[in-house]
Amino acid sequence: MKPIKKHNILSIKAIAAMGDFFFLNVCFVLTFYLCRNKFPSTFDLFEDGRMLWLLMNTSYAISFSFIGIALDQRAVFIENILNKVTKTVILNILILFGSLAVVRYNLPRSFLILFSILLFASISAWRILARLILKRYRAKGRNSRNVIILGAGNIANEVYKSITTNLSHGYKFMGFFDNRDSKEYVVEGSLVKGKVDDVIQFLEEYSVDEIICALPAGEDRKAIPIIKFAENNMIRCYIVPDFKRFLTKKVNLSFLENIPIISLMEEPLQGVFNRIIKRSFDLVLSFFFLLTVFPLLYLVLGIGIKLSSPGPVFFRQKRTGKNGEEFYCIKFRTMKQNKDADKVQAQKGDDRITKIGAFMRKTNLDEMPQFINVFLGQMSIVGPRPHMLKHTEIYSQQIDKYMVRHLAKPGITGWAQVTGYRGETRELSEMEGRIIKDMWYIENWTFWLDIKIIYLTIRNMVKGEEKAY
Fold first, then answer.
1. Where are the beta strands (DSSP E) in 204-292?
2. What is the mean pLDDT of residues 409-421?
3. Torsion of CA 210, 216, 218, 223, to 10 degrees
4. How far is the C-alpha of 448 from the C-alpha of 278, rounded, in Å?
5. Does pLDDT of 4 surpass 50?
6. Long-range contacts of 195-204 (CB under 8 A, 24+ apart)
């Protein structure tokens, strides 16, 4: 058997770690000199700061090893990288705080704040740069993995397209293996290198790093001896289940003792750490907004609303919140008071909308009082938009999995709204598209995805939106 070429993932982690610790110590020294006046005049960084330096590096080493980097994955989004950096820096600061308290080491608060900001910015930039370099490196055929696919049907073809379309994933495809007649191949026949029974001989002759089993149900048992051989020869194996056609989203595998259980709904916000991050962000930003910007908005827009038509400044409407619980959603009133407000959506050219109301809707300013809902914990800044009770009643009967969107707190803005599903839904298909976007958000939440959505919302507010009426 030929030697099997192995690509040590530890080398990528080692390079990432070296970069992290380089910037950690640069930030440490830079922060000290920027905050030099906060320390005693006799304090020497390289003499008196040894304990601080040791605690700083040790706490980061613990955080780094616990959180990971995501860079070693073959396909990863930038927000996933930033999510790892955020968790690493936060955990590092918490461990450092605890360590400093134990050894009774007094450190200026301004030093810790500035150090944290610089550390986050530099590590984020470094890891994004490292990811771009790694992708380009792999696209040139380096740090690649030789892979074969068991099967030549639809699933195998999908896997093949996925690993060969983007060269930056770093895969070298070596062939399909399938027992069926060549007339039944879905893939290009020239790419099929033999039958499933020929795989072990192929592994003995060629260097293969990974095997992806995409055989149909009933045929997958034939992969068992191949998997055993691969495990004994340090070749990684992956299985694409034949029930993939029933699954259109990410799932989670857990075990009940030795029984495998697949969760059909994965929610990052079920994690306590993620919930703390999201709620803390909501509280801080809503408190700041209500204390600074909102009073001015209330004064200016409130006068305009009162002059435009009789009625209150705020419009309060019962809507469906998290877990189906009802709450009063607060908005600046944009319509003349009417009996259909709780039943009929605003439409293009709707004569119920006042002139200032049209302006507020176009710029999303009518949604700003919902920061009160956010502060009270009824809503989040980002999440699926809350629907009127009447719409929840109607669409829950017409759209499959409609109620899944209520597993998360409703938001002032959301993924559906910044990707083309804002405003009136004239056709059922438009609401179905919105629900798909909402479900995707719930299953793929990260803190940085929220930041991205907020940025896109602000950008849309500035340039205006076609469906904002």
1. 210-213, 236-239, 252-256, 259-263
2. 90
3. -10
4. 10
5. no
6. 196/150, 196/222, 196/223, 196/226, 197/222, 199/148, 199/150, 199/226, 200/225, 200/226, 200/229, 202/148, 202/175, 202/177, 203/1, 203/229, 203/230, 203/233, 203/235, 204/1, 204/2
Read off the amino acid at residue 90.
Answer: I
380-382 and 326-332 beta bridge pairing? unpaired
Q: Whole-number mean pLDDT of the chain?
A: 83
Alpha helices (H) along 70-184: 78-102, 109-139, 154-165
Cα 51 → chain centroid: 37
pTM of the model: 0.59
For residues 31 and 115, is the Cβ–Cβ distance under 8 A? yes
Confidence check: pLDDT of 449 > 50: yes
171: β partners: 145
Q: What ranges do the domains of the chain cover?
A: 9-139, 145-246, 272-463
Measure the CA angle with vertex 394, ends 368 and 370; round to 5°. Answer: 10
Question: Rounded to whole angstroms, what are the CA distances from 104 to 4, 92, 155?
Answer: 53, 18, 60
CA 355 to chain centre: 38
Residue-wise DSSP of 163-213 = HHH-GGG-EEEEEEE--S-GGG-SS-GGGEEE-GGGHHHHHHHS---EEEE
What the block records as the tokens of 226 is: 């191949």
Q: In whole angstroms, what is the distance from residue 226 CA to residue 406 CA?
A: 44
Give the Å distances, CA to CA, from 461 to 211, 362, 456, 466: 49, 7, 9, 11
Chain segment 8-63, per-residue pLDDT in tens = 455 777 888 899 999 999 998 899 888 888 877 777 777 777 888 888 899 999 98
pLDDT, tens digit, 9 for 90 and up, residues 345-382: 666 667 788 889 888 888 888 999 999 999 999 999 99
- CA-closest candidate to residue 72, choices 150, 169, 155, 142: 169
Instruction: Compute the CA torsion angle 211, 213, 219, 222 (nearest 10 deg).
Output: 20
Token pair, residue 263, equals: 């969760």
Higher pLDDT, 149 or 271: 149
Spatial distance between the Cα atoms of 172 and 169, rounded to a whole number of angstroms: 9
Cα–Cα distance measured from residue 360 to residue 186, given in angstroms and rounded to the nearest whole number = 54
274-308 pLDDT per residue, tens:
888 899 999 999 999 999 999 999 999 999 999 98
Q: What are phi and psi of 107, to 5 degrees?
A: -135, 135
If one counts every other C-beta atom within 10 angstroms of the C-beta of residue 402, the result is 21
CATH superfamily of the 145-246 domain: NAD(P)-binding Rossmann-like Domain (3.40.50.720)
Q: How far apart are CA 330 and CA 318, in angstroms?
A: 9
- Tell whether the model's pLDDT for residue 243 goes beyond 70: no
